[in-house]
Amino acid sequence: xIVKSKIVLSKKLVLKRQIIKLRMKNNYCLILLFxxxxxxxxxxxxxxxxxxxxxxSSDTNIDFKNVVKxxxxxxxxxxxxxxxxxxxxxxxxxxxxxxxxxxxxxxxxNKLYLNQGDLEFKDITQKAKIAxxxxxxxxxxxxxxxxxxxxxxYVCKSGSINSHSKRRNKLFINQKNNTxxxxxxAYGLDHFGFSTQAYFFDxxxxxxxxxxxxxxxxxxxxxxxxxxxxxxxxFRNDGATFKNITKKAGILNKGWGLSASIGDFNNDDLLDxxxxxxxxxxxxxxxxxxxxxxxxxxxxxxxxxxxxxxxSDFxxxxxxLKPDLIVLDMMAEDHIRSKENMATMxxxxxxxxxxxxxxxxxxxxxxxxxxxxxxxxxxxxLAGISKTDWSWAPLIADFDNDGFKDVFVTNxxxxxxxxxxxxxxxxxxxxxxxRVSLDAAKKxxxxxxxxxxxxxxxxxxTFKNTTKSWGLDAKINSNGAAYADLDxxxxxxxxxxxxxxKASIYKNNTKNNYIIFKLKGxxxxxxxxxxxxxxxxxxxxxxxxxxxxRGFQSSVSAQLHFGLGNKTKVDxxxxxxxxxxxxxxxxxxxxxxxxxxxxxxxxxxxxxAMNSRLFKRIIPTDIGINYKQKENIYDDFKLQxxxxxxxxxKSSALAVGxxxxxxxDDFFVGNAKGExxxxxxxxxxxxxxETNQKLFELDKDFEDTNxxxxxxxxxxxxxxxxxxxxxxIKENSPLLQDRLYLNNGKGKFTKTKLPKITSNSKAIAFxxxxxxxxxxxxxxxxxxxxxxxxxxxxxxxENEKGKYSNNIEGKFDSISDLRMINDAIFSDFxxxxxxxxxxxxxxxxxxxxENKNNQFYxxxxxxxxNISGWYQSITPTDIDxxxxxxxxIGNWGINNKFHPNKQKPLHIYAGYFxxxxxFDIALSKVSKTGDLLPVRGKECSTxxxxxxxxxxxxxxxxxxxxxxxIYGSEKLENAHHFxxxxxxxxxxxxxxxxxxxxxxxxxxxxxSPTLGASIxxxxxxxYxxxxxxxxxxxxxxxxxxxxxxxxxxxxxxRKGGFTFCNDSSYFNNMEAKAIEKISINGVxxxxxxxxxxxxxxxxxx
Length: 1101
Known about the structure:
Elements: E1 30-34, E2 52-55, H1 57-60, E3 88-91, E4 100-103, E5 111-117, E6 120-123, H2 125-128, E7 136-143, E8 152-158, E9 170-174, E10 180-182, E11 195-201, E12 210-215, E13 233-237, E14 242-244, H3 246-249, E15 257-263, E16 272-277, E17 284-288, E18 294-296, H4 298-301, E19 305-306, E20 312-315, E21 324-327, H5 335-341, H6 347-355, E22 361-362, E23 366-370, E24 376-378, H7 380-383, E25 391-397, E26 406-411, H8 420-431, H9 438-444, E27 453-457, E28 463-465, E29 478-484, E30 493-498, E31 504-508, E32 513-520, E33 532-537, E34 540-545, E35 549-550, E36 554-555, E37 560-565, E38 569-578, E39 581-589, E40 592-597, E41 602-603, E42 615-618, E43 654-657, E44 666-669, E45 678-682, E46 688-691, H10 693-698, E47 704-710, E48 719-724, E49 739-743, E50 749-752, E51 761-767, E52 776-781, E53 795-800, E54 803-806, H11 808-811, E55 821-827, E56 836-845, E57 847-852, E58 855-859, E59 868-870, E60 873-877, E61 886-890, E62 906-911, E63 920-926, E64 932-934, H12 938-944, H13 947-951, H14 955-960, H15 963-967, H16 969-973, ...
Parallel strand pairs: 19-22, 32-40
Antiparallel strand pairs: 1-40, 2-31, 3-4, 4-5, 5-6, 7-8, 8-9, 9-10, 11-12, 12-13, 13-14, 15-16, 16-17, 17-18, 20-21, 21-23, 23-24, 25-26, 26-27, 27-28, 29-30, 30-31, 32-37, 33-34, 33-38, 35-36, 38-39, 39-41, 42-74, 43-44, 44-45, 45-46, 47-48, 48-49, 49-50, 51-52, 52-53, 53-54, 55-56, 56-57, ...
């Protein structure tokens, strides 16, 4: 049984912990601590106006201040990291149940504060012999280095450019009497590199703790040389001492390391290391090889990363029991700061770095969502946490005790080192050989205090900025931070090390339920570093792994805290100590601290999860398919520098049909310019044979943008229509001519003539709209060569006795609003018995044409046709089985920087803004103040339209100007002007009577553009499901590429709703362009067309 100890609390809910031990029948110790008598909460917060309250130093007695003093020999001009600040460590140094605080100071005295209870602290620095004013101090880690059950401190050194001795890291051993003794050398840990932070973990599974040390290079130049002492370091724990095995382990590197995150990134029960590197050197993901070595595999696991990576944290943000990674960068949310501090990324430099293995890097915070199959989806922009300015520490923790982890971010820098006007002035001074004093430099550099950020978890992969409402909006520049329950009231308080100002202590006023765990690990790891706890309470599941070094230069509490919202009981708790040692506890009451002791653990061999998989992956070559898509190389940005993404790589031709009437599905797949398309004919054994090779070899100079099988000549076989296009192809080129291939009934095709169609065509829709017994064809056009976002008029090929002629003007009342068409379908949306037409494209609304007496009239539909987007696809289906047709609308998704809405749409102006021959464009958005502002920065805007260079001299001027002040009212008034109001993909539910309802797809379907979708009942439950695909890698280099989607399956239910199916058997980590269902051997499969890759073929189980 479990003994409960009720403790009467003081008015401020603070007490020293009393411990009652009970030896259980199964020989483990369970220690229960009730910190409150109530197990349910009627209010979310205690009596306070905000969730956090800033405590005054006079109340806490914490007056620590990290002040940096510059001089002529040491300043921000010769040491770039002078404003990186310092850290804070939480540690109960005297084991009295109260968390104590240790602050590091760059140049001054470190400070140790003993928690006296009631949120009052006592400065015991001098008595504790831990002041340490030698050199330049950075990060600090609390760790029990000698396994005596008392926490010690490892302190990092940097900054002392010319002194190895001043840069030797320190190890302060707890003497168990509130004093410490420095013994780094004795343990082999007195490294003299430029250290940022230390991370302790058991990398070799020998039950003791090794140390990874993040260092940065001495220089801040581009040279390639690796200097061993500047590299990150790996120290193996050999018992009494540590051995440096950096080179042997494959860790030797040359980065500017600012943080690391420890965890199992590939689910092999070995701990890996993610290193966040500043500047252009890419982040590392050191995957543990299980043999004492590591291999950097960041390129394999992440589709892109941040550029100036700062702090990081690795924890589960969506309660799927898989840890996710947050890495901070320095992109400002504020328009003026972003434009003043943002230099243009050179397109050539960007791609040269990619070619050299430096990865796709973007100046943005990243949230890498763990997919569980060794891939990650970066969704920081969808989540709403991508822009937090010059940020340092991310801390992922449940700050409101609702059971979902929130994100706290420290922010700010004393001087804006990246201010472009300042940098340009300094470059000018260098060119003119003008020496600038430190005082003179400080007068021209900008400086601004910034608030920190906190984001509340919305429980749907998104976060809400609650900085102000939670009381954390004070303008103060901060660096290191940690969380801990300082007053033992069951919520997490915040401790922040600020720049040049007193440290901040924020009391948390949350009143939701919670449960806290303390770990008593093995003798070689008393605090259970690396252990993982999973908590289940009704439908709520959470997990946390015990690592103390988190965020930036700091160390958090060794207690594992879980918020529970209004849950009144924990159903079960599972702890994995590592090395197949586990414990489980059932029916645990809330609002208490539970101590797990490894003495009661049992051996347990993990079994692989045997969840049923919806799909089986088929290797294409095993069934005779040798196709590979290959894009031709073309630089769209030489035509239009400010394109949001390339327009020349839209080949997505994939069509399925029975071309030889043998009852088996065959398919055609197109290719890019210079590569041939292919027809594959299915045989009875489920394998495929390529046919018509010579025909498509002759036409390989065409870019196949789309394809459909249709019977154009009424001979009861399927012919093939292929659209030709390509933004790179000049207008009226014969390479833009669409192609029609007639079938001889046996699957052999011959090209026949079509009317002259020499535009960049993309969409194909066909129907016998007039019921005269033949097939008519609508062709929608995409962007004109060099004139994005304009497009040529569409075509309507009317079939008159087997001959096609373009009759778009005669059959349609208005086509002026059709632009950049991507897809179209004929469908009887009004249920009047004839085929209407629906068209989707970019910079336009979904456009309905109602068929009235064989003429098409544009129809307005409330709430639909007045919402413009970047629509990519439309898929018809009766999703709710009510007898009418609904539509899956594939849009651009919401994981991007634009986030347009009806009140603040994305604008584009296009025209000839200057005297040259290039067709200019300018994207713009409405600011918080209502001004229309440019999306792109000064340098690239000036490169596109050079007259701006004379008109607007400085970045500050550009940042303060609106679109009309920048380009001139007359130019914009005479330009083409389009808007996009919504990027969400959704279901357009037909409610009949000309009424439609928009039902937004789940956020998992919004990771990337939905370029295509297919509908069948995948799981055989009687309800239709949706399989959507799409990624777009061709964004301009200052826009994060759209690479997060692995495809999505949405399972339908009887209520017409959809649930994302998290099943890695269908995940496709490629640039998917099209999807079609196909029957192979009588079983449904899906074919996915991937850019620059082979096909993905998935069999439905």
